[in-house]
Each structure stands twice: as structure tokens, then as C-alpha cells.
């Protein structure tokens, strides 16, 4: 059973001991993703995620990496449209060191202009990498279409024109405004001591509240997007209105997705690939946010099979809607 502590400044600390484990997983979740960004700020949340690994007042970037590797730990981070997460996994003996490391990165990062310039180049290469991946590009174009007019339509990584205007001081100021304590959740699971929990409470308890930042609500809208690219296959995603992540029907949607397009026995896999051989890959997934979401079917296929595959997908979905899940 997990335990929850809410500090005076709003930081929530969630802990759960797992008997028999000798390791601990620590995650620091901040409700500051790309949807809080203005158009001119696009890419800021992800840029900050990169910059906290570039060195602090106490440690260089190399020392941050070496210190975690020296104890056999794992540390990483990711950014979504609604949050940024910094996480680590270590043996329980090394948990105090991991706590110190992650907190040093979050609270004392340098944001030097030299490092900002270097990391900007890294992110631009990352953008190029995703642009070369048709599956990722298809998902990005879909979000841009169905959420047009809202921040959810913009890419998490940003774009060159916005990234080039971000300085170290600007990123630091953005982080101060958006990393509010009431939007921070610290999660600790595995093997740990009360001293570890007290250490986290002391470190996060000193964060000062900031003025609330609001974001524009998003809503699903029908859309058609097309991107021509010189590749062998056409990558296609068909989307339908979905659910927010707080909707009580989200579990039913997950069950529906499993039956329709997740796994080798799913309806779409059997009909489109196994029986007709029209594609190599086909699956369903849902994308959910605080106030909206969509459900999607993805596949990649050749031009010669596209029309037949689309008709098979349409008829399979229609039959599924009429008759539901069957044995």
C-alpha cells in the first residue's frame, strides 16, 4: 500500500515499499509539459529536460554521468505534452546519493550559454531523427491536425525558429515559473528508509510557490493531413475521438484497443495481415490528456494494397462496433 505526504508548499511525495527488493526507483514528475508553452516558447520544456544533465554548481556534466555509472545506477528523463519526468533506479544502499544527484540537477543546473548552444544542436539533430522516422512523423502530423489551434498540436521538441531564441537565462526563468511545487510529484518505490523520505521532504519543502500558469484547453476535431516523403511505404493513421486520462471509461477503451488492435489475436491483425496479407504492421493505441484524447489505428503498407487495406479496416471496425468483443 502506498503512502502519500503533501508538503506545506503543495509538493506530493508518494512512497511504496516493495518487500524482497534491494533496489529503489525514484521519479520526480513535474506538471510542466509542452502544452503550457506559448507558440514562441515551443520546445522550452524539452530543452530544460536536456539542460539539467549539462552540469551544476557542484558537478560537471561528465561528473554527473560518472557518479551514476560508478554506483551501477540508471538515470534518465523524458518530456510529454503535459509533464516532465526525471527518474533514477539504484541499489538501496546508493539511494541517498541518487537523491542528491537528481536534486542537484533540478535545483542547481548551470544553464551556461556554451552548454545551451551545444544542446540546441543536439535537439535539432533529435528533431531530424524523428522527421526521418515515418511512424513518428505520422503521429506528430495527426496531433497537429486533430488538435489544431491548441498547444497540443505543437511538437514537444519545438522547432528551429523557437529554439534559436532561447538563452540560458531565459530557460532558467521559464523553469522557475513553470516548475511550481504544487505541480511536483515525487514517487519512491522499492527498498528505502524513513531517512530517505525525510531527505526528500526537506529538499522539496523549501521550494517557494509560484503564480499559477494556465493552459489553453484542447478538443478533438476531424482533420486530414498529408506529408509526401520519398519512402517505400505509405504510413497511415486513422483517428477517432477518445477520452481524457481521468475518464472512468478509459479502462473500457484499453480493453477495446486490446481486442481490436493489440496483439497477434486482435481483430485487425488477423483480418488485415494474417488473412489478407495487406500489411506488415497494424495496431491501435490511445493518446489521452487532461481534457481530451483520441483513439487511433496505425498501419504501413504499399500503394498497391492501400485501397483494399483501408476497406478491410473500415469493415472490421464497423463489424466490431456492431457486434463488440466475441470469443
UniProtKB/TrEMBL annotation:
It holds the Pfam family Peptidase_M16. InterPro entries: Metalloenz_LuxS/M16, MPP/UQCRC_Complex, Pept_M16_N, Pept_M16_Zn_BS, Peptidase_M16_C. Residues 169-326 form the Peptidase M16 C-terminal domain. One of its GO terms (biological process) is proteolysis. PROSITE patterns: INSULINASE (PS00143). GO terms for molecular function: metal ion binding; metalloendopeptidase activity. Residues 12-158 form the Peptidase M16 N-terminal domain. It comes from the Bacteria. Belongs to the peptidase M16 family. This is Insulinase family protein.
Amino acid at each position: 500500500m502506498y503512502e502519500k505526504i503533501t508538503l506545506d508548499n503543495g509538493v506530493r511525495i508518494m512512497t511504496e515499499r516493495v518487500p524482497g527488493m534491494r533496489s529503489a526507483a525514484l521519479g520526480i514528475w513535474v506538471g510542466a509539459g509542452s502544452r503550457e508553452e506559448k507558440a514562441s516558447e515551443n520546445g522550452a520544456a524539452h530543452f530544460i529536460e536536456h539542460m539539467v544533465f549539462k552540469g551544476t554548481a557542484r558537478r560537471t556534466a561528465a561528473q554527473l554521468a560518472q557518479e551514476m555509472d560508478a554506483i551501477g545506477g540508471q538515470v534518465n528523463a523524458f518530456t510529454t505534452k503535459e509533464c516532465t519526468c526525471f527518474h533514477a533506479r539504484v541499489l538501496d544502499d546508493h539511494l541517498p546519493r541518487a537523491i542528491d544527484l537528481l536534486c542537484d540537477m533540478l535545483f542547481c543546473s548551470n544553464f551556461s550559454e556554451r552548454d545551451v548552444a551545444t544542446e540546441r544542436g543536439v535537439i535539432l539533430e533529435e528533431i531530424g531523427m524523428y522527421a526521418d522516422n515515418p511512424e513518428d512523423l505520422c503521429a506528430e502530423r495527426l496531433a497537429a491536425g486533430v488538435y489544431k489551434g491548441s498547444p497540443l498540436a505543437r511538437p514537444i521538441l519545438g522547432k528551429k525558429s523557437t529554439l534559436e531564441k532561447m538563452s540560458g537565462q531565459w530557460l532558467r526563468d521559464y523553469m522557475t515559473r513553470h516548475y511550481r511545487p504544487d505541480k511536483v510529484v515525487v514517487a519512491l518505490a522499492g527498498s528505502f528508509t524513513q531517512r530517505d523520505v525525510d531527505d526528500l521532504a526537506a529538499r522539496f519543502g523549501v521550494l517557494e510557490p509560484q503564480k499559477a500558469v494556465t493552459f489553453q484547453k484542447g478538443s478533438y476535431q476531424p482533420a486530414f493531413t498529408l506529408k509526401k516523403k520519398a519512402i517505400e511505404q505509405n504510413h497511415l493513421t486513422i483517428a477517432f475521438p477518445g477520452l481524457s486520462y481521468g475518464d472512468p471509461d478509459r479502462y473500457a477503451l484499453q480493453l477495446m484497443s486490446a481486442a481490436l488492435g493489440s496483439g497477434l489475436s486482435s481483430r485487425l491483425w488477423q483480418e488485415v495481415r494474417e488473412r489478407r496479407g495487406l500489411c506488415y504492421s497494424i495496431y491501435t493505441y490511445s493518446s489521452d490528456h487532461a481534457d481530451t484524447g483520441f483513439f487511433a489505428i496505425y498501419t504501413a503498407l504499399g500503394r498497391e494494397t492501400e485501397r483494399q487495406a483501408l476497406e478491410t479496416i473500415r469493415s472490421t471496425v464497423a463489424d466490431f462496433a456492431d457486434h463488440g468483443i466475441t470469443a
